[in-house]
Each structure stands twice: as C-alpha cells, then as structure tokens.
Amino acid sequence: MNHKSQTRDGGCTCGHVRYQITSKPLIVHCCHCCGCQKNSGSSFALNALFEADRVELISGEIEEILVPTPSGTGQTITRCSKCKVAVWSNYNMGGLRERIRFIRVGTLDDSDQFPPDVHIYTRSKQPWVILPKEDQKVDVFYEFREAWSPESMERLAKIEKSVGIKIS
After folding, report:
1. What is the pTM assigned to this prediction?
2. In this predicted model, what pLDDT tens digit does every residue of 99-123 receive, in sequence order?
3. How far apart are CA 40 and CA 135, in angstroms?
4. Which residues form the CENP-V/GFA domain (predicted)?
C-alpha cells in the first residue's frame, strides 16, 4: 500500500511551522494523565502516533524541550520557535523515542479526522469529562495487542526490528 496517498498537513498557530504526515496513524491516544493535563493546559492531550520517518518538517524552525513524565523517562516536546505551540512529542516508549512521533491532533489542518482509538490514564481524568460508553478506555496504559490494529502491529514490528528491541 502506498502510504503517501494518505498525506495530511499541519502546523502551529502562527503558521511558521508546517509539517506533513504521509500515512494514517498507528493509533490515536486521548491521554488523561496529570502530566498531559499540565503540559497541554487542558483536560487531556489527543495524540496520533506515526513513525518518525512519516512526519516531515516542511517549513519553520522548531525547538525541543525535555519535560518530566511520571515514568521518569521524560518526553521531548517539539514546539514552534516563534509561537511556542507544541506540534509533536517523542516519548521513550520502550526505547523508541526517536522512532515514533506523537502528533498533537489539534495542530493538523483536518484535526477532526482523528478521533481517539483509546483513552489512557482514565484514572486521573477530570471527573466532569464523560467518555462515550463504546470507547476503549484503560485506567493507566494498555497491552499493545489489545489496542492496536493488526496493520499497526505489523508497522510496529518493523520499527522494533530496525532497532533490535521488542516492546509489544
């Protein structure tokens, strides 16, 4: 399958940073952890996960900021150097920090195309956030094979093989 046919564009608020993704996401997380609440200034973060080589910076200058996470491994948040809007993050996720990008869905030009596949860290969600009954949700994190599609698991296996680790 030619993943280039699924190209989508995104960018920051001021328009300085523009990026392009060239496939559908591996999975879309709606994270309700306290760290995401603090880092986003909102009740959750909505992230679409993509292989890093399928995310291309088209224009603008970015800056990367390492912030702490509850796991202690930290996350690197990539922001526009001018307006400081976060466009993506990289988490350690079993040693795949540089291999998977967590695109902030709200920065995509067509952000309505990526509803969450799973709600994570729901034990710390705001009590007034009501999740649809049919949505997949977990108290903390999930088992990969329970949440990811077979196609996404195949894509993850390729990443794992390329770096010689197994996280799934």
Report:
1. 0.91
2. 999 999 999 999 999 999 999 999 9
3. 22
4. 8-129
